[in-house]
Amino acid sequence: MKAIWNNTVVAESNDTVVVENNHYFPIDSIKQEYFEDSIAHTSCPWKGRASYYSLRVNGELNKDAVWFYPEPKEAANHIQGRVAFWKGVRVEA
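-> structure tokens emitted (93 positions)
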């Protein structure tokens, strides 16, 4: 699977985990040069507290386009160490 934004592959892996129709990529599959820390957080009742990254590709910013669970609840342990994408990031085979 590939995560693509602004015509650039920002993550690629054959080992994604699908949860609620979102592909979670292993953290070591991301191209870190495109990722920037974000202060955003949200909460999911069964996964826990999510943190975010923004993407910067070719000078363009996609704010909070990547989320992850640094300390997921027990039901979501299988996505620890993984990231998922939204906000126009295409995920395709």
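Residues 37 and 53 are 5 Å apart (CA to CA).
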